[in-house]
Amino acid sequence: MLESFNFLVILEYLPLFGQGMIATAWISAVSTFGALLVGIVSCMMRLSPVAPLRILAGAYIEFIRSTPLLAQLYFFYFGLPTLGIRLNEYQTGILALSLNSGAYIAEIIRAGVQSIPWGLIEAAMASGLGYFQRIRYIVLPQAIGVTIPPLLGQTIVLVKDSALLSLISVMELTRAGQLMNSERFMPAEGFFTTALCYLVLYHLLKAFSTWWQKRLIFRPA
Amino acid sequence: MFVYYLNNLIRTFPFFLKGLWMTIEVSALSLMIGTVIGFGVGIARNARIPVLNHVLGVYIDFMRGTPFLVQVFIVFFIFPEWGIQLDAFSASILSLSVYAGAYISEIVSGGLDIIPGGQIEAASASGLNWFQRMVHVVMPQAMRPILPPLVGQYVLLIKDSSIVSVIGLTDVTRVGWLTVQRIPEGLMVFGLVGILYFVICYPLIHLSNAFEKRLRLQEFKLG
């Protein structure tokens, strides 16, 4: 197994993997930001008193959660051009990732928001705070504390999901492994290096998540 | 043009159903194997056997820390190099069940953690052997918190099975991919693919939610 492992070739391809890791990192960061926006908006829609908004957001969330990301990615990749919308593969990938994770984030935020007792909101209303003031000063500060750990979990999922973008030829980590496999016929070297890079990212995020949770618990009130 | 493509798509619909059947077949098989792996590993991890625990920890970490796509590539491209020839179907089953097994084992060992040690001591003192303890004391209680996330994991498994389409397994995603080469209406073709997944996954998600609700009601009554 390992005796035939060619470390020199890995060394030669290291810049490509570095490039891939940076690409995976920035694509994930941008998509996470997009997903947060989508998630907050669709959560607000889902909890809004206006029925059409509620139904629309509900349908979006349920449909995304019941279909695989790969099908969604192909849907945008093959579907958007027929509508005359031309995005490059990076934009398509980020769009698909954001809309996919947005649905999960909407549910995470909803759980956080619903963990706030209704009495607090009534008290805020009685104090004369408007809808956005209630969200800004009462709901969000409390909801964020509960939602950060699952949000970080979702970010980890997103980083791993971004591997699928290699299938629409986005140059990221998995693509680096695929290139090494097809150029040198060295699947073991290529894909184990890819896996190792993902493990590094995974452990960084996990360590951050643990650190954050500790900070939340021990933070003086 | 749209109507022409729509007619074409309707004519290829049996092909989609075949793909759907393949998705169900692969998911169901790996679901069963993955559950067996998951329960085995979960129970073993919960026993906290020194060396074994570390080995299993590395396995779980690798499965949770790397994308499933990379794992599929490892099974499909690297195993032949080591002299293990697998066709797309067995490679899919293998990668999916080993992957799902890692997540299921975490759910299982989490569920086992809630059983108080005193109960197990009481059961051993009553003369129950390990197997009897598991069947009559531990599992009936542990299954309640295990069941909702387990069904949720099955939904994830069915969705992740779409990824094995990249190594040439003709599941519903691959049928869509093949169809879109002839019928260049991506929204229509992958809309249909999405609907087919939705039909399977949506009821399962609600089943998981129902289990969870029941669990919370029981806790409420007990507490």
**CATH homology-level superfamily of chain B:** MetI-like
**Percent in strands of chain A:** under 5%
Question: Average pLDDT across residues of chain B?
Answer: 90
Measured between the Cα atoms of the first and last residue of chain B, the distance is 63 Å
Query: What is the domain tally of chain A?
Result: 1
- Give the % helix of chain B: over 70%
What radius of gyration of chain B results from the CA coordinates?
21 Å
Largest sheet of chain A: none
- Principal-axis shape of chain B equals flat
Q: Report the radius of gyration of chain A as a whole number of Å.
A: 21 Å
Q: Give the low-pLDDT segments of chain A.
A: none
Biggest interface goes to: A-B, 42 and 43 residues
Distance between the ends of chain A: 55 Å
Write down the CATH topology of chain B. MetI-like fold
Oligomer: heterodimer
Which series of helices and strands of chain B comes N to C?
Answer: HHHHHHHHH
Structural class of chain A: mainly alpha
The biggest beta sheet of chain B reads: none
Considering DSSP H and I runs of 4 or more, what fraction of the residues of chain A is helical? over 70%
Key terms:
heterodimer; A: 221 residues; mainly alpha; MetI-like fold; 80% helix; B: 223 residues; 0% strand
What's the layout of helices and strands?
The complex is a heterodimer of chains A (221) and B (223).
Chain A: H1 7-46, H2 51-65, H3 69-79, H4 89-114, H5 118-126, H6 131-161, H7 173-184, H8 187-218
Helix pairs in contact in A: 1-2, 1-4, 1-7, 1-8, 2-4, 3-4, 4-6, 5-6, 6-8, 7-8
Chain B: H1 2-11, H2 13-47, H3 50-65, H4 68-81, H5 88-113, H6 117-125, H7 130-160, H8 172-182, H9 186-222
Helix pairs in contact in B: 2-3, 2-5, 2-8, 3-5, 4-5, 5-7, 6-7, 7-9, 8-9
Tell me what the structure shows:
Chain A is mainly alpha-helical. Helix content of chain A is 80%, strand content 0%. Chain A is built from 8 helices and no strands. In chain A, helix 1 packs antiparallel against helix 7 (173-184). The relative contact order of chain A is 0.15. The mean pLDDT of chain A is 88. Chain B is mostly helical. Chain B has one domain: Orthogonal Bundle (MetI-like fold), CATH 1.10.3720. Helices cover 85% and strands 0% of the residues of chain B. The longest helix of chain B has 37 residues, at 186-222. The interface between A and B is large, with 42 and 43 residues.
